[in-house]
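Record 1 of the preview.
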Amino acid sequence: MSYLERLLEGVEVEWKSIGDVTELKRGKTITAKDKVDGEIPVISGGQKPAYYHGDFNQDGETITVAGSGAYAGYIMYWNEPIFVSDAFSIKPLSSSIDIKYVYHFLLNKQEFIYRLQKGSGVPHVYTKDVAKIQIPIPPIEVQKEIVRILDSFTELTAELTAELTAELKARKQQYSYYREQLLSFEDRDVEWKTLGEVGEFQRGKCFVKTDLVDKGVPTIHYGEMYTHYGVWAQETKSFVSEELLVSKKLRVANNSDVIIVAAGETIEDIGTGTAWLGNEGVVIHDACFSFTSSLDPKYLSYFTRTRKYHDQIRRFISSGKISAINSKGLSKVFIPIPSLEEQARIVSILDKFDTLTTSISEGLPKEIERRQRQYEYYRDLLLSFPKPDQA
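->
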């Protein structure tokens, strides 16, 4: 028999409504203009404090339920003074009810509570509807043990998130440091040439997002350069049709070209490159350039992420609603040109850092999601007491 089975074996459970065992109390609505400066969280209709106030109307352990808005019904737990505004609080009526037990139970009902939203305009969740929810009440010692188990999952997830986030930050700093050091060549004798001397730029041609299709010719839209692509790529997330390629005479980057984004909302967004290593050509947007040269494409792509590179292109960027740089400006950027063997060695070192930071970046949300699913599984298991008519 497992620990969980032993914990719940023979336990007598009484089912009662939330309204019978807790006090549900509507908050006092205030607005930002009515608040007094302070550090007390104001709980309203969102998933975080709306703002902060100088006074509180609930102290100690408190459960809150957002009263209105897109997140009406959202459950939160507090163990500090708060001001409940456009929300309502829930607190046990007796010592036979553990507030954290109620909190975990309501979290298990979160999707159901969202479905209690009413109203044709701004959705609301009302105390009278939450009060009708039936909750199983085992002995207080069982409630506390269930809370201990579920809290431990929450703490483990928080600790893991903090550790992986700190590790990711440290690795990114280390990665940035070595990239700057390896590509500065301050203490090494190396020839510097402009990009215009070592290669040729080709500007893409205009197409819009509605031109993109599920299958067809591999395509990179300039906006994807900021959200999807890194140092290199050999597959695309987007495509255009062969017909569009021909009719609009779209331009294609080839294997070993570097695609450089040339427009963005801020100066810092511009100029980053992605080495294209795909087996077939890739269509590029008119807010991008492809650059063809004899340089190792990943070497150049890494260089476009250095301070030395961005310090150079800054003076050639035109600013406005959309900032941009043209090929004439990019052509004037100086880049160190070591041997191809040295370029490959630098790429090999930086690839290891890139792989490490990417794996941590991808692993972090996956591991957090795994822990969250584990928590939800045990929460459901621990709180699934049979009702009398199911016994």
